[in-house]
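Risk register update: the risk that structure generation would not scale has been downgraded. Supporting records follow, first protein first.
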Amino acid sequence: MPEHDSLRIIAFELRPVRIGFAVLEGLLLLDWGARAFRGGVNTVSVPAGPKVGQLLDQYEPAKVVLKRIVSIRAAHFAKEIKKEARLRGIPILRLSSWTVVPGRNKQERATAIAQQFSELLPILPPKRKVWQNEHYCMPIFEAIAMGLASLSQQ
């Protein structure tokens, strides 16, 4: 079994139309990104299950990390992720929202994470105005926050 510091995990942050993910090996950030799954005219050609399966096959994590579900569509993504992880024998760690990296809001967490991982500074979302939609990259920062929080849960 790998040591605590070298355990590879993949954390997913689920939104109604997209998934943010982060791959960490201890405190080393290996990869991150977001995958969109819009419906209607903009329907994607590859559904969530196969895309998640590709990520799991590529990175071969020891654990998958998920946070609480906030919408029916996100619950669908969670079901697909669990199915793909079970097929590969990868355990799933569920975190409640209060165990995630401290900060009064998502912007503060994202800024703290970007300071820790300087390679993320170019994608750090600007401060959001109340009338603006959440930035496309924010689920990436939330996934990293969950991945970091999971290190203390092992």
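Supporting record for the second protein:
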Amino acid sequence: MLKEFLNHPNIVAIGEAGLDKLRGVSLDIQREAFIAQAILSEELRKPLIIHCVKAWDDLVAIKKELMPKEQWVIHGFRGNEQLARQLISHGFMLSFGREFNPKALQIAWQDSLLAETDEADINIYDVYSKLSEALGITIETFSAALERNVSKVFTLLPLPKEKEIKNK
């Protein structure tokens, strides 16, 4: 039933799958559930959105073992520049929100960066503003790079044209 639900065209990613050494059940059970979701990501050809807390080595080891073709995205990345560099070297993309490490953001800029508002009641424009300011670039330049990254990672349905909306 889950696989059928996730196969719907409006579902653009699998997740939030995760490994968290500070919460939840044992890491062995988390690993088993994570691998099952990663396999679904591959079967359905949808990126995997990942929550990871203090389990980075485990995460990288699983990625090396599974060798996924689909993109893996770290949700709410707040790590340092060394971790950012390591994850990007293994093909991860990093998604930044309101709280972030500016040096890690610099490492992810331009090709490995996404933005999000998941953790707070903040507008995505405010996140874009904060991230572009930290990078020392215009919000337009930031938005253009982000749009390219989003289109590389996600298969999105086209938005209906204004005329089509009025006819409904």
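The longest strand covers residues 14-20. On this basis the risk owner (M.S.) recommends closing the item.
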